[in-house]
Amino acid sequence: MSAAPLVAHGIRRLGVLGAGQMGTGIAMVSAVRAKVPVSIYDRSPEQVKKGLALMDKLLDKDVGKGRLTSEQAKEARDRVSVVGSEAGLKGLRDVDMVVEAVSENLQLKQSIFASLAAELSPDAILATNTSSISITKIATSAIPEGFSASSEEGKKSASRVVGLHFFNPVPVMKLVELISALQTSQDTLDRARSFAKPRLTGLPTEVTVSKDVPGFVSNALLMPFLNEAIMHLEKGIATREDIDTTLKLGMNHPMGPLQLADFIGLDTCLAIQKTLYEGTGDSKYRPAILLERMVDAGWLGKKSGKGFYDYN
Question: pLDDT by residue (tens digit) across 204-245?
């Protein structure tokens, strides 16, 4: 396959770190819409296998519904290659931007970005798909060991970190939230925005911008709403059905808050709510006890087969 042409954002090959639902979706839409080769890496070969199977299923569905031709689907799938576990992050050395899409854990992301900064080209954009964690904290971890944050080397390395928050399911949702760390350069922001613009469903794609605050715009508004709904259930104010029906029929929401929490993943909801609570120190963000207990029980929502509703 010939190399993708150089475009305004300068990204000829994309790396995606994490082959879960988000990483797979980002890889797929980048191959289909932005038409760039994608290298995907996950330390779990089994997760890569599941992710590629999901991608094949989604591409087949698009062909069946006439959104893509068989040839277009094959071309998109051929653009996606897997970085083997033996190569690890070194297999991403030729990418112009990498999007990290692992779980919402600050320490994990800091470790990953320290390694990415050391292994990738110094001009590569290091993007995180975090939905709530401080981009500034992540950017600081990209500073090479032995250099200060104020050194030229430290400032340059941190300046290429940016938040690119995609929404789930990525092939359907038309929004990307762009977040700048304190250290992010204007060039990094411009290139990341340019790449995000054409990359979704063929419908107009919007990129919104948020300051680097806990939860950004999207989850600083959404998660307290979901958490309050869970507290209403916890207190016995209403049943799960009545809570969800009230918001669907009374507020014209496409699904109720408890069902939406199930679809997001209750472990993800809890992680984000904790980030809001710890990042602000405001008691209004305290996670619902019921949410914590359900995560303790392994009831994580749709992905585990049980959450506020049963999915088996």
Answer: 368 999 999 999 999 999 999 999 999 999 999 999 999 999
Name the DSSP letter for residue 217.
T
- 3-class SS of residue 265: coil
Tokens representing 293?
A: 């207990």
Structure tokens, 267? 């472990």
Q: Which residue intervals of the chain are DSSP H helices?
A: 21-29, 45-64, 70-78, 106-119, 135-140, 152-158, 186-196, 218-234, 240-245, 257-264, 266-280, 289-296
Q: How would you classify the pairing of strands 97-100 and 80-82?
A: unpaired
Using 50, 70 and 90 to split pLDDT, how confident is the model at 8?
low
Rounded Cα distance, 285 and 238, in Å: 21
Pick the closest to residue 122 from 91, 153, 90, 162 (CA basis).
153
* 127: three-class secondary structure by DSSP: strand
What's the CA dihedral at 178, 183, 185, 189 to 10 degrees?
0
Phi, psi values for residue 165, rounded to 5°: -90, 105
Residue 51: which of 74, 32, 77 has the closest Cα?
A: 77
Nearest to 229 by CA among 240, 217, 218, 215: 240
Q: Which of 26, 16, 36 has the alpha carbon at shortest distance from 173?
A: 26
Closest CA to 1 of 63, 109, 74, 91: 74
pTM over 0.85: yes
Percent of the chain with pLDDT over 70: 95
Q: Catalytic residue positions? A: 131, 165, 177, 219
Mean pLDDT of 187-191: 93
